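Predict the assembly for these two chains.
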Amino acid sequence: MNAGFEETRKAISALKNHSDPVSEACINHHGQMEDKDENNAAVQALLKHRLAYPSDTAAGIQIHGKVRGLFNHVSSRVLFRAHHSTFAGLVDELDNSIYMYLHTRKRGGDIQASEIDIQEKVIEISELLTEAVSMFHYIVTDEFSLAPTISERVRQTTRCIKQLEHFNTLFRDLEVENLRTKVGHDIFLERQLMKRLKRIVDANVTSMAEIGRRLNHMLNKFIRDERIQKLNGLIDTFYAHYAREPGYSPNIAGIDDLPEVFHLTESLQTTGYADIESVSDEPVLENMAIKALEKCQSLVKVESESNKLPIVDARDEEGAPEILDHLFSCAEEFIEALMLSKNIQRLSAMDQHSKLGIPASPADWMLVLMNYYDAQKGAISRMWDVKVLDLTHPVYPGTSDVIDVVFIRRTGRFA
Amino acid sequence: MPEHFIDFENTVTALLSGRVICAISHEEEHSYLRDERRFEDVDFYLHRMGRRVRRTSDGQGFYLVYNALDNGHQKEVQQHFNTFAGKLDGLIAWLRLSRGVMGEAKPMEYGEVIRESELLGAIEESAPLEAQLSVVAQKLNPNSSKQNAKGKLSSVLNYLRDEQFLVLTGGRAGTVYRATAKWSLLYEQLNFIRQHDGLLISEVPVEVGDEKQMGFEL
């Protein structure tokens, strides 16, 4: 453990002592360090601590990829921005060089120097473009993993997508149409711009398009994750609160600035009333009257047939108390209204309790009513939806108090 | 009668009946309302009846609200809320149960597909989930006399369907439901209640399953 610690300390010291040549090599020479006198000490130190290895292709050493990775990591943002702005400047310089080249061709002068100038600019743009794109790629693939929260990742991704848009502006300068305009009919420019530069631009555009797709995909995922995290937090918050306070029941009474999500309307059934004075409604009314008459007659018929059956009343002769008779007759009337009425769209047990002056408590009234309803459930539920409104008992969780029974007429389409 | 009159009528009727209109529960009416001009048309019509059409914040659902809360409407809104509040405990318990069963720590949201057989399979394999289901069934549908997991799950799903949180879509692979935009509305209401009642978010540690969502995928 101590030996490892010591090795690390020495390696870091080597980097620190030779930070200038190492930075120069990593940032400007793809990690290659020339074997010259002034670099001697750095070369020896880097080789000693396995931070570099002898280069096969050039005289000197190649700094290890891990060291370069570290340099890229700490300097990527700055380098990327620097590359980005330099690139924009180089494109302008290329335009200028082309102008000078065409001018020299027309007016005479050192054409070779102009050609070399353009070649250099093309190489510079190509290298810078490739490096900026790979730097951007590095930021996207590596740095995001360090973001501590989803919101930070969303912020970083959004920022990168914006940078990508800047890149698009730069690429627009190097679009085929623009390059074609710059080239004109010149063979040299054709070779430099339409072949050399365009190949590099195309490769980088493809690479950037891929990064863009990935960024958008990541952004969508992060936004989704953020939303999911919020919803989970919301669910868990209420769950924890209910666990602590089982009798908890939110209340909106008295809130002045109640948001619209709570202003939900009650179901409103649309109905129309015929104008009995109007001649135009006469055929409709006549038709309705005939149908109603037919129904009444069939009911009377059924009733008279049922009257023929002998009824045995096993109850005491004095009969049930009058109060119960009234309660039952109210329940029967309620059920009859459900079965026969066409105009009623909503019938509430509690509304009728007060309107009919039911001589029983609301609970007893609803109990009797539900008994009647159960007996004729088949017929009633074809026409009515039954909604039992209840409230969880604040003291005894799991126990509900029924506060009303509401019958809502079914409509054809939404029944 | 021209077709757009019928669409108008159906849309207005659905809104007046207190439904949350989304592409899952009311495909045609939702499509009608997505047309900005028609939306304004319906909204203008209902405005004259003291109502306005509103969208859920995720834009998936349309619902009707009162223009202004006078005394009569205040009472209705309060009554409506009391009914909702009475079931809130059960709905929260259901959300946790379904999140645990469906995996990926994903809460139930608009568009979610729920297969009764898959839910039942997962619940029957786990005693804690079965216990959770009993609690949910007891809270949401206390009148149900079902004793086994299948019956309890059916009673819960029936309740959610009756309350338009779910729509039965059928399908060959057994009973399949889809979640409607009423969940979006519920989350909006919960958000307000949480803020108003001062409930602190993340009062409980996030379950292990929830960590999955933090993963960074490239």
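The mean pLDDT of chain A is 79. Chain A touches chain B through 56 residues (CB under 8 Å).
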